[in-house]
Amino acid sequence: ILAYQPDPELMQYYRNTLVNFGLMKFLKDFVPERITKIDLCRLVLNLGYPKESISNQRFLTTKQVAGILVSLILNDPQVNQSQSYSDFAAYHHPTSDYTIPKLLSDLTSAKKIMVISGAGISTSLGIPDFRSFKGLYAQLEHLNLKDPQKVFDMGAFQKDPSIFYSIAHLVLPPEGRFSMLHSFIKLLQDKGKLLRNYTQNIDNLESRVGIHPDKLIQCHGSFGSASCLTCSNRFAGHKIFEHIRHQHVPRCSTCWKTIQEAVIIHGVIKPDITFFGEDLPKKFYRLLEPDCQTCDLVIVVGTSLKVEPVSSIIDKIPRSVPRVLINKDPIPDRDFDLSLIGLCDDVVCHLTRELGASWDIPHPNFVPSTEFTVTPHELYSKSYNIVKKET
Ligand code: OAD
């Protein structure tokens, strides 16, 4: 094949099709489903790409040559400028073989990283997540609720706020501590790379670690503030922490004076957490669309992605943007380019170690000399287990 002389007329025809009609049309017209490796190589040469790009084709599989062809086209500046290219790129990830080295290089170059986080980023601090084996919902069996999520249900709270206050202490944030993952998000912010952190967490630790309010969307609200359900007066969240610790229902002192015994909810203060049945903050809806269109890397971390609308965010992001999962458990039914399975603090420690000293995470538990084992996941493709090496 390397002795093959490209046909100038064919080259003109192929390139015209690509530039004017885009990659999809080109593939549809010139790449049959059962194309041979030799024919793919001819296409590469007839498009005017150098022989060197396929010079070791004897050792490549047909799929690899097809990958080379697509990648040459996607990186071709002439094709790149055409409108059809961007249409294609929006739906097809150019690097289906996304790897850890590629992620490292993207972390270095990315400027608009979206982090979508959940309860798993706080479990290392002793706050339970919700749906794990020993998560909060598993700890609520004694309440005999048909659905443990009812403890965060607005209708149920209005009927009897004491149920929520009997368990809220279990998810109360610890004073003055945050996890290495929280510090990693702060590091992304300090490096000017954080577009937004969409967190489902209510512990408010993102604010405590220093994520700027403009960079943070607390999709489910937080313990950071609380409001009286009668007069809507707003309080600093910590004002009701003692009540929460003692499992008492806090009440607003102004409304308390006019308490009507018959109305159980009168003057009750509720943390500004978004309960099921309540709307998410307006900021979420205002920023979601533009953020999805501008982000250049998505990191989903410590969440089972079970709760809407956060679980659908990744479906709104153009397919050309790499999406990476960092989680203790795989989420096989969602389409990630790369899944790094392990404790999130360990995973980011490994990644930042690989990136060098300028990426040291400012956290007391960050030890740059820690070593990790990285192995392909036994069940799922594009997934790796990352585990701290025993010392
Ligand atoms: P879940 O409990 O559903 O999922 C937590 C995920 O984090 C699981 O997939 C765990 O495997 C993973 N995980 C736990 N510890 C981890 C660690 N150290 N490192 C990495 N991964 C870890 O929690 P969320 O997805 O956050 O709503 O739940 C979403 C919403 O459901 C919550 O915001 C909450 C709940 O109902 C409200 O509070 C209103």
UniProtKB/TrEMBL annotation:
UniProt-annotated binding residues for Zn(2+): 228, 231, 252, 255
UniProt xrefs under Gene3D superfamilies: SIR2/SIRT2 'Small Domain, TPP-binding domain
Transmembrane segments: none
One Pfam family this sequence matches: SIR2
Domain called Deacetylase sirtuin-type: residue spans: 93-358
PROSITE patterns named among the record's database cross-references: SIRTUIN
Cofactor(s) this protein cannot do without: Zn(2+)
Record's protein name: NAD-dependent histone deacetylase SIR2 (Regulatory protein SIR2) (Silent information regulator 2)
SUPFAM superfamilies reported in the protein's UniProt record: DHS-like NAD/FAD-binding domain
GO cellular component: nucleus
Cell cycle among keywords: no
Catalytic center residues: 220 (proton acceptor)
Sorted UniProt keywords: Metal-binding, NAD, Transferase, Zinc
InterPro entries: DHS-like_NAD/FAD-binding_dom, NAD-dep_sirtuin_deacylases, Sirtuin, Sirtuin_cat_small_dom_sf, Ssirtuin_cat_dom
Family (UniProt): Belongs to the sirtuin family. Class I subfamily.
Molecular function as annotated in GO: histone H4K16 deacetylase activity, NAD-dependent; metal ion binding; NAD+ binding
Name of the gene encoding the protein in the UniProt record: SIR3
